[in-house]
Design goal:
Layout lengths: L17 E4 L3 H12 L3 E8 L9 E7 L4 E6 L4 H15 L5 E4 L2 H10 L8 E3 H8 L7 H9 L7 H4 L14 H28 L3 H21 L1 E3 L1 H26 L8 H11 L18 H6 L5 H20 L1 H4 L1 E2 L4 E2 L2 E3 L9 E3 L11 H8 L1 E2 L5 E8 L2 H10 L2 H8 L4 H9 L9 H15 L4 H8 L3 H14 L1 H17 L1 E3 L5 E3 L8 H37 L5 E6 L2 E7 L3 H13 L10 E6 L2 H4 L1
Parallel strand pairs: 1-4, 2-5, 5-6
Antiparallel strand pairs: 2-3, 3-4, 7-9, 7-12, 8-9, 10-11, 13-17, 13-18, 14-15, 16-17
Helix pairs in contact: 1-2, 3-8, 4-7, 5-7, 8-22, 9-12, 15-21, 15-22, 17-18, 19-20, 20-21, 22-23
Amino acid sequence: MTSAVAAHLKTIADVPHEYHIAATPAERKQLIQTLAGLKSFCFDTETTGLDPKQAKLVGLSFSFAAHTGHYVPIPQDADSAKKILEEFRAVLEDERIEKVGHNLKFDLSVLKWQGFAVRGKLFDTMVAHSLVEPEQRHGMDYLSEVYLGYTPVPISKLIGEKKSTQLSMADVPLAQIAEYAAEDADVTWQLRAALEPLLKQRGQERVFFEVESPVLPVLVDMEYEGIRVDAAALAEFAELLAKEMAEHEAAVYELAGTKFNLNSPRQLGQILFDVLKIAEKPKKTKTGQYTTDEQTLTELAGTHAIVQRLLDFRTATKLKSTYADALPEAIWPATGRVHTTYQQVATSTGRLNSTNPNLQNIPIRTERGQEIRKAFVPRDAGHTLLSADYSQIELRIIAALSREPAMLEAFASGLDIHAATAARVFGVALDTVTPEMRRKAKMVNFGIIYGISAFGLAQRLGIPRGEAAEIIAQYFAQFPGIRGYLDTTIAFARQHGYVETVTGRRRYLRDINSANGTIRAAAERNAINAPIQGTAADMIKLAMTAIHRELAARRLKTRMLLQVHDELVFDLYRPEEKEVRELVAEKMKTAIALDAPVDVEIGTGDNWLAAH
């Protein structure tokens, strides 16, 4: 781990540096000639905002040697700006030159909205650091202090601290912005030199160069494409949800015998536990208030009719505010589409995160949640939506990693894995497995991946703890390979302090040898889950890169739009359906070679729900 940041940090005032402004056509020409002859250079964009769709470019900065940098001011007049940018097109789009940057996806996106497709290998220092130190912060200033002992000029020095009075970057004097921007590129160039050996040292080269760097331009293109959303359908749904909320609210008041504020935990707690007395020993928060969170209410759902009404009210409220009301507002007027942003370094397992808006948490298991997916539609009549989903990928990965013969055999035979598990665990013939047996087996199958305990299983299935313990014992007796895999993985984590995915992505587990049983158990659950979830994450990223490359190489009109957990969503150009189905299935199945068959479910439809 990195040592504490040294107290004696240098700044721009202490370090000799050569930063140049390339403002005239002759200066830019000379800079471009130099860049064109390089194998690699670092670049950074200065913009008027943080939304690539509407940010205006203020300048470009470049560095290709420590303590040196070049700044190219871009005028705010659109025509002049376009002419200057055009001069740099050839070097930015040159596939032979590697581009280095920090949070490169932002810079590539800004340029994409300006009509430029940056090409060449990419080295993103933010992504590199997220693999070297997954649990730490990845900001450039922080990395500069840790690895270079140097504090860069903070942006607040240029535009001010207070949001309300901040300047736009376009208003900062040229000399000041040039020094700030050139320093950014210079520091990032130096960080690359510091981080590259660490990637090798930590065994992260394959993940960085084969998984993360190639998927970066794919994400840029997906964010740029966006997806069409039917605002009218959502408005109708919002009205329906408002009616439902009013009905649930009225029912709650009637059952409570009085009106109160449903959104006040204090008032709700008093009604449930003091007035209606629905629990003998209600849980309390640290401040002494009754606990009324979702988990608590779900556990009490069978005790009184009011609880289910409250849960339904909350579900409708959340769907309305988070999706039915918010999604139409997220439609970008210039394209009529919703453009999410993918966070590449937000999780320690390697899974992508979607924000502004978050399209990965749309509930799919409930009928109401499915209504939201119905509002996602193809771009026009010539297209339909195609959804490709890995089937039970995490179970297939654990079967492959554990080499458990019974599970591998069930997958190879194309059996329903939960029914096959139930047959073994309950000692019955496959054709006599009841829905209840299957439900229990399914909970164990998925629970094992997350290190479920007998207590946890008992809670989820609503059965006595003894029965849950017996089911788990029986499970491990029937699938000894999985028990062996779990034990081996935890032993490896205890010895090395980390676990790895198939590609070598590491999850460090500081608490794996903790003396505190609860903390240690949580680390053990992460040790079991990280290689499985992380391998699934790497797999879909590799598939995305391969599909994206192939769609471009074949000059197909189909576009990849969304990645949601184990699913990819495409705007499918109808005449290409046969070719695209085959291409997507093949690239997803072969992304990582596993010792278990990989199954991909593909569907098409006039909306996302129908396709899925």
